[in-house]
Task: inverse folding
């Protein structure tokens, strides 16, 4: 048994582009292009990056909502990306997902009771009475009043709906929960409540989270390790605190400099990236970040940097970065 | 089972659109009446009291003339029986339906040729057609056949259209492409010619006519359903169901179709009126249901050929107009009530 609950190994998810009368394949969207990381049981890995970088696709690829093009997703020592459908159904119970948009992720035609009962129905668990009982417990656990059973999703606020979404995700006592930007669609005042609920649940049920977000401040609050993605690849991986204190990749530095500091006197040095994120259909050669990198050198245009442990780093090998010039920042 | 408040809202909105709501009341009472037409329009009596015993001939076996002390073994002529009882003194009586004529029966008289004009005395409220059949009776039974026909057609169209459309949207890719081309070719087959060819070879029955028409009309629903499925399939609640391990079957029947229903019901009333028009025009041309089936198209044809018998063409046109207008008003109101612009909430 390895020490990791989930190991993602060189995961690639490419979406083919079909054109023409006979739908010939004319290209691919390289949404996820070789992502590797691992999560220990009970830990939280934060996965950050701007929109379009493929972080959601990674989450969905792990749950096989998208079929991986290549690479392995090893969950409890089994490669679940190639499991036959029937066997994968069994694994599904342990892998759940919380979605970004609580208005979209609940079927508006079902009552909350039906929505929460569905996981039990799908996996044929319990009698009708037991299921109702479990639904009650779940509602109580996430702090929604019991009458909700008979109500419909649109009768609730965004925060309440997200609680219902969380209740559905934890219904089957999963081990790993992929949280796909669970608070991005919510008001700031609600965000912290939901984050605290997630933290409580993690402690109670010993959950492991893959926490996907575009907001570094949110990830900092929650995660043990943080991985930064850019254009389908992980550019930096580190202990959460280390990443904030000493970011090595220029992209991470730019992201961190964008976190607002709630103090009018301190003016952080903002690193403003120019340009748009390049198209994942034609990713740039060499280092993918070189088109926007403030410190790019000749080498970055040709040679793709590997995600390597920064030997000089204080946290001994736990800090990885994919940048030719990362070593210059180590001290 | 709680009703979705959104559905309630739609129903309330529908009933607040007066034109559509009253049309709905009129049409549904028309349908209801036509389903119990035997009580109101029939040559069988509703109740016969003969020698202290009650008979209810409307439904069930025929009661022969012998039963009522007459000298024949075939079905009792209740209109004559009523006349006889009135003259006799046995205290026997017959309660006839308001329109005591059957749609197949020729009311022939000496020294006169049909069509007979409307007459309260003969109880031919809308007169008779060119062979002496009561027009009101034929209108009522013709309506029943037409409405059953269009409902049957609707069911057939929706079943085929939804299954194929849903499969196209759900499977996508080459399967979708293949069916799109098939449908494009299919929709270019001239419908009327095919019906004419088929009905000149065999006399189409009710079911067969539905099948022939459904053969061509499922296409419309397929496009709608295909688009809806594509749209719903990509939404997060479907992904959520899939992440929980739901089967394709479950996703289609519990998630996609219920969400598509609100769109496809808005097409149903228009499909009904289309069915009525189609059947009537086929009957008018003589390629529809075989005579002597009561039918509006056949009456229209008679009326057209006998314009001086104004009551024939007048009755049919009035009945058609009323039906089509009510159906269209209902359709409009349903579309209005289901309009997503009134129900989508962005918070």
Result:
């Amino acid at each position: 048994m390895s020490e990791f609950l989930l190991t993602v190994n060189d995961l690639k998810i490419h979406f083919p582009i079909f054109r023409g009368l006979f739908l010939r394949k004319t290209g691919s969207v390289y949404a996820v292009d070789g992502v590797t990381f691992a999560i220990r049981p009970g830990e939280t890995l934060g996965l950050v990056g701007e929109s379009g970088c493929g972080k959601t696709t990674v989450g969905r690829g792990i749950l096989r909502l998208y079929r991986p093009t290549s690479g392995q997703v090893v969950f409890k020592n089994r490669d679940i990306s190639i499991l036959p459908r029937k066997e994968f159904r069994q694994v599904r119970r342990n892998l759940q997902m919380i979605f970004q948009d609580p208005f979209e992720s609940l079927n508006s035609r079902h009552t909350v009771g039906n929505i929460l009962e569905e996981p039990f129905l799908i996996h044929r668990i319990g009698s009708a009475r037991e299921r109702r009982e479990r639904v009650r417990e779940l509602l109580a656990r996430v702090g929604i009043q019991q009458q909700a059973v008979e109500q419909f999703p649109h009768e609730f606020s965004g925060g309440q709906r997200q609680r219902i979404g969380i209740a559905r995700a934890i219904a089957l006592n999963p081990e790993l929960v992929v949280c796909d930007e669970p608070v991005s669609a919510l008001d700031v005042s609600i965000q912290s409540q939901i984050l605290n609920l997630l933290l409580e649940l993690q402690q109670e049920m010993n959950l492991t989270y893959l926490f996907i977000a575009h907001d570094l401040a949110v990830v900092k609050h929650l995660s043990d390790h943080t991985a930064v993605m850019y254009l389908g690849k992980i550019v930096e991986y580190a202990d959460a605190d280390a990443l904030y204190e000493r970011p090595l990749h220029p992209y991470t530095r730019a992201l961190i400099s964008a976190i607002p500091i709630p103090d009018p006197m301190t003016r952080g040095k903002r690193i403003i990236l120019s340009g748009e994120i390049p198209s994942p259909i034609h990713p740039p050669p060499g280092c993918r970040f070189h088109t926007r990198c403030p410190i790019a050198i000749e080498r970055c245009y040709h040679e793709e940097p590997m995600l390597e442990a920064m030997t000089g780093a204080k946290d001994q090998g736990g800090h990885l970065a994919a940048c030719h010039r990362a070593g210059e920042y180590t001290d | 089972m709680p009703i979705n408040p959104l559905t309630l809202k739609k129903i309330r909105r529908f009933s607040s659109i007066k034109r559509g709501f009253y049309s709905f009341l009129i049409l549904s009472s028309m349908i209801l009446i036509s389903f119990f037409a035997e009580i109101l329009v029939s040559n069988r009596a509703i109740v016969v009291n003969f020698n202290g015993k009650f008979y209810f001939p409307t439904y069930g076996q025929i009661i022969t003339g012998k039963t009522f002390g007459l000298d024949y073994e075939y079905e009792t002529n209740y209109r004559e029986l009523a006349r006889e009882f009135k003259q006799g003194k046995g205290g026997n009586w017959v309660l006839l339906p308001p329109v005591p004529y059957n749609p197949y029966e020729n009311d022939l008289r000496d020294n006169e040729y049909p069509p007979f004009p409307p007459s309260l005395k003969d109880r031919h409220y809308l007169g008779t057609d060119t062979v002496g059949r009561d027009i009101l009776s034929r209108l009522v039974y013709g309506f029943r056949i037409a409405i059953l026909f269009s409902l049957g057609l609707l069911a057939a169209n929706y079943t085929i259209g939804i299954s194929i459309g849903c499969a196209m949207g759900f499977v996508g890719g080459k399967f979708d492409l293949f069916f799109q081309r098939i449908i494009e070719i299919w929709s270019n087959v001239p419908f009327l010619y095919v019906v004419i060819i088929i009905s000149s070879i065999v006399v189409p029955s009710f079911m067969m006519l539905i099948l022939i028409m459904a053969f061509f009309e499922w296409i419309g629903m397929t496009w709608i359903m295909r688009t809806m499925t594509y749209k719903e399939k990509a939404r997060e609640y479907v992904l959520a169901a899939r992440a929980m391990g739901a089967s394709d079957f479950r996703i289609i029947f519990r998630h996609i179709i219920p969400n598509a229903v609100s769109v496809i019901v808005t097409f149903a009333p228009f499909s009904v009126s289309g069915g009525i028009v189609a059947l009537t025009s086929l009957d008018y041309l003589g390629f529809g249901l075989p005579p002597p089936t009561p039918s509006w198209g056949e009456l229209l044809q008679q009326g057209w050929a006998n314009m001086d018998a104004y009551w024939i063409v007048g009755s049919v046109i009035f009945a058609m107009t009323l039906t089509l207008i009510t159906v269209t008003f209902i359709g409009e109101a349903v579309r209005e009530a289901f309009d997503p612009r009134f129900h989508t909430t962005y918070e």
User: Anything to note?
Assistant: The longest strand of chain A covers residues 24-39. The radius of gyration of chain A is 21 Å. Residues 106 and 153 of chain A are 7 Å apart (CA to CA).
